[in-house]
Amino acid sequence: MLEVKSPWNNKNIGSVETNNSAQIEAILEECRKIANYKGKDFPPKDRIQILKTFQKMISENIVNLAELATSEGGKPITDSIIEIKRGAEGVESCIEVLKSEAGSVIPMNINEASSNRIAFTQKEPIGLVLAVSAFNHPFNLIIHQIIPAISTGCPVIVKPAEDTPLSCKKIVEMLYEAGLPKNRCHFLMPENLELATKLVSDKRIDFFSFIGSSKVGWFLRSKLSPGARCSLEHGGMAPTFITTNSEIDSCVKSLARGGFYHAGQVCVSVQRIFLDKKISKIFIEKFINEVQKVKVGNPMDKETVVGPLIRNSEVERVDDWVNESVKNGADLLMGGKIISNSTYDKTILMNPNKKDKISNLEIFGPVVTINEYENFDDAVDLANSVDVSFQASIFSDKVHEVLKFYEKINASAVFHNEHTAFRVDWMPFAGLKHSGHGIGGIKYSMHDMQIDKMLVLKK
Predict the structure, then answer these.
(1) Given its phi and psi angles, is residue 243 left (phi above 0), alpha (psi -120 to 50 degrees) or beta?
(2) Which secondary structure element, helix H or strand E, spans residue 404, and what is its range?
(3) What is the structure's pLDDT at 1?
(4) CATH for 2-234+435-458, among 3.20.20.140, 3.30.1660.10, 1.10.238.20, 3.40.605.10?
């Protein structure tokens, strides 16, 4: 039995049963048999009806689902409510893709070799999907991983983060209540790490969906059986550029949100601000003033923006990184202290050493660094020097400056006059380099979980 505790006050809030080797083997074998039907036993009309019912259930229980997510993950309740609403929209997106996307006709009769032939493709489920998820969005991440699988006709096994399994378990229970056959989706919590790794490497797994740390994700990818496909979503270090052509007042509001939302525990959270030295004084003054308004505290309080870190050990780690940077010469503009066992103060560091951990690794905490620059191109080179690449942004009212940044920065997505944590669930969401593999986002995940199967008919 796995006990689940609140990251805010360490109180027990629930538990889930763990699975032994025999139970996991039974689930894998059942899923293999289901996968062999290639979705023919579960036609799209049935999937759509179940998803519609499931979406309605989410929409009617937003507050209760948000409170559950907040209690186990620590995300402030206001943001958890937004997360649950996004989850419902994600289900709707799956339905729309299922209704509108199909196969295609392949040109024939255009040369001698293709004469007297008709060819087309149809979508077919790839097979058994294994989804391993992260803690920071315990509801919506699960939606993004298992609902595309169900929509495409794939059986799916889902293993949530050990810190936040309750929302996942609730989703699976709601799906059953909505009419989903229980053999099509299995909640799984291996009783030890060895069993979890063995699960990933099982040859019956056709597609592996992972959201979490790059260290774990790349390791697990190396364990996949030959032929298994995968998508990996890791973290980044989100560079944001502030130029002399920025509108400072709107800029600071956006960055205070993007840097400290959910205590910085977001894979595209603003971590590195690159600031033109000519406007440094005015920006810093206004930014500090804006960040001071951000409330740290109980995640169930509607005014809270910065809640607890997921584990007490993370508070200690973040403090170690900040202290290292200050020791190496960074200016501590605000924060830099442990508030409680579960919370760390909103922190702004100025000009950290290039060799500091915080300059090279994702901190996943409520800490933002400001790096002054005099030469724009040199600053972009510095932003590109790390091993991760995800989303980036620039605040500027000059089109040529925005386009130059777009061309030079290492990123899969660039935002103009917006923080780096912007996301809508139908857009592509892809980490590059160490930040991930493949493309996330509802319809892109559905594409990954299907194959285009071709038939060539000879007249």
Answers:
(1) beta
(2) helix 399-408
(3) 87
(4) 3.40.605.10
Nearest alpha-carbon partner for 273 in 321, 305, 322, 238: 238
Task: Describe the strand order of the beta sheet including 367-373 as a list of residue ranges.
Answer: 331-334, 347-350, 367-373, 272-276, 239-242, 391-395, 413-416
Active-site positions read: 233, 267
pTM over 0.90: yes
The Cα–Cα gap between 73 and 140 comes to: 12
Longest dimension (CA), the chain: 77
- Supply the DSSP string of 60-125, one letter for each residue: TTHHHHHHHHHHHH---HHHHHHHHHHHHHHHHHHHHHHHH----EEP-SSSSTTTTEEEEEEEEE
Structure tokens belonging to residue 281? 């004084």
Alpha helices in 308-375 (DSSP H): 312-327
Contact 321, 357 (CB under 8 A): yes
**CA angle (399, 401, 403) in 5-degree steps:** 70
User: Which segments in the chain show pLDDT lower than 70?
Assistant: none
Handedness of CA 289, 259, 271, 242 (dihedral sign): negative
* pLDDT tens digits, one per residue of 207-243: 999 999 999 999 999 999 999 999 999 999 999 999 9
Query: Which residues lie across from 168 on neighbouring strands?
Result: none
Q: pLDDT tens digit string along 385-443? A: 999 999 999 999 999 999 999 999 999 999 999 999 999 988 999 999 999 999 999 99
CATH number for domain 239-416, candidates 3.30.390.10, 1.10.8.100, 3.40.309.10, 1.10.10.1100: 3.40.309.10
Look at the block and give the residue holding tokens 């290639």: 38
Whole-number Å distance between alpha carbons of 5 and 216: 23
